[in-house]
Amino acid sequence: MERPLTDHEMEVLRRLTAVDKPEAPAVRASLNYLVVDDECDCGCDSFGMRDTRFPQQDHHLQSWVDARSADGVTTLGLLLGSDGRLKYLDIYTPNQGHLPTAEDLEILP
Ligand SMILES: [Zn+2]
Question: What burial letters (b/e) apply to 20-45, b meaning 16+ CB within 10 Å?
Answer without folding.
Answer: eeeeeeebeebeeebebbeeeeeebb
